[in-house]
Amino acid sequence: MYTRSANNIVERFPHRWSSCGAAVIESVPFYHVSPGSRCLVIGTASCNFRCRYCSNAFVAKEDPFVYVKKMYHLEPEDIIRAARRLECHSIVFNVNEPAVSIPSLVELGAAAKAEGIPMGCLSNGYMTGESVEILASIFSFFNISLKGLSSEFNRRYIGIASSEPIVRNIERLARGWHVEVTTPLIEGANDGEIDVMADILSDIDREIPWHVFRLLPEDEMKGERYPDISDIDAALTSARQKLRYIYFHNFVGSAWVNTQCPRCHSVSIERVSLGCGGDKLKRVVGIGDRCPACGSPIRMLNLVSNRKENT
Ligand code: SF4
């Protein structure tokens, strides 16, 4: 949400938030960040994409001048206070795209850092190299959405010309930060790209956790059929040889939400999928970040929160 003022680009509605509430980190989803921890989920409004299937269109595509009346005005210290009161281990930007609210997030990030509260975000990853460096200074963990690769898919479903900046930014962030990737699958649109996407991600880092989402289309695609679970499971067969942690979820009762040891395949972390972003931790079987059977390391970002206690 930016506008031009003199020769500057300025944020139109600083410190306006569409959401601010506690959630478990698996529901975001982050599966390899402090399992079972609580995060304060925040979001603003607007987006730099126009995905035809957007499930948050009421925030992402709404005219900001209209939507801003429904938003909370919260200064960084208000959000920090909420995170402490709700006993959250982190603050996670979700709902829409963080790149549209960078100035507010820079201020919040500085306040959170001073309080020892780590921040993470979901992002579509479509931004300049300069913007990604700013996000990297705010957030320590990312879930980047890699939606599709072909120009046809990106033009038709997202409204962009190329996914090249997204892949470049995943590569950049994975060099120093914790990165998970999510791909919402639309049968007949991007499911034919599963193997190529797995190749690209494994070339960057075989240990990137990949969330393959069974897309439940909304907005302009509401009414289209949901992807077939067994077809997608079959399509993931060879991708599972390329990446160490592949999850397939966003539907009730998914059998593909547990973390298995990449070496001996024993279950190290059990989760339940309630669908629609309602995933939860069931239990951690391993000891620390190690497989309970063979002791191999399991990739995990443990949030070290030095947050001050409520007084
Ligand atoms: S990137 Fe996300 S929030 Fe933005 S339009 Fe697409 S689905 Fe909606």
Look at the helices and sheets and give the structural class. Answer: alpha/beta
Return the string of H and E elements: EEEEEHHEHEHEHEHHEHEHEEEE
Largest sheet: 8 strands, mixed
CATH class: Alpha Beta
Helix content estimate: 25-40%
Structurally, how many domains make up the residues? 1
CATH topology, which one?
A: TIM Barrel
Q: Which regions contain 5 or more consecutive residues with pLDDT less than 50?
A: 305-311
Beta percentage is 15-25%
Q: List the ligand species.
A: iron/sulfur cluster
Q: How would you describe the shape?
A: globular
* Number of contiguous helices: 9
> Roughly how many Å apart are the termini?
36 Å
Strand order of the largest sheet: 4-5-7-8-9-10-11-12
CATH-level-2 architecture: Alpha-Beta Barrel
| Strand runs, count | 15
Mean pLDDT: 93
Using only CA atoms, what is the Rg?
Answer: 19 Å
What features would you highlight for this structure?
311 residues, 9 helices, 25% helix, single chain, 8-stranded mixed β-sheet, TIM Barrel, binds iron/sulfur cluster, disordered C terminus, 3-stranded antiparallel β-sheet, alpha/beta
Q: In words, what does this structure look like?
A:
This protein is an alpha/beta fold and 311 residues long. The chain has a single domain, classed as TIM Barrel, CATH 3.20.20. The protein contains 9 helices and 15 strands. It is globular. The two termini are 36 Å apart. The structure holds iron/sulfur cluster. The site of iron/sulfur cluster has 10 residues, from loops. Iron/sulfur cluster binds next to loops.
